[in-house]
Write a structure and sequence with these properties.
By secondary structure, this protein is mainly β. The protein has helices at about 15-25, 30-35; strands spanning about 5-15, 40-45, 50-55, 60-65, 70-75, 80-90, 90-100, 100-110, 115-120, 125-130.
Length: about 130
């Protein structure tokens, strides 16, 4: 269940994220910021199963509210207007974004008390690891 994600998580490592951002079309200046920032991700669950995911950093903060298996409009941190669907599969929270004929998938799961986020675009995979803060 998604309850295992409910916490504040802080980024501790990031692998191949610049390549991933390039693959989804993020410009150089935004990638530079994206590579320097160590965001916190905050998950909470509200009434009626509405899930809130906030990404907070000194550069930019974003917030999405969603129900599993229901498509919604998302404006990403890099400004893309995406159609997004979140599902829960095999213990993973799977976020699928589509925009301009492209699709990227982000899989988040808890492993050994850490939040592991894998970002997939074509043959590029980035892995971001977060420690639980609270």
């Amino acid at each position: 269940m998604v309850e295992q994600f409910v916490a504040t998580w802080t980024l501790i490592s990031s692998e191949n994220f610049d390549e991933y951002m390039k693959a989804i079309g993020v410009n150089f200046a935004t990638r530079q910021m994206g590579n320097m920032v160590k965001p916190n991700v905050v998950f909470s669950v509200g009434d009626g199963g509405l899930i809130l995911m906030k990404t907070e950093s000194t550069f930019k903060s974003t917030e999405i509210k969603f129900k599993l298996n229901e498509e919604f409009d998302e404006t990403t941190a890099d400004g893309r207007m995406a159609k997004t669907t979140m599902t829960f599969e095999n213990g993973k929270l799977v976020q699928k974004q589509t925009w301009d004929g492209k699709t990227t998938t982000l899989e988040r799961e808890i492993q050994d008390g850490k939040l592991i986020a894998k970002c997939f675009m074509d043959d590029i995979i980035a892995v971001r690891t977060y420690d639980k803060v609270a």
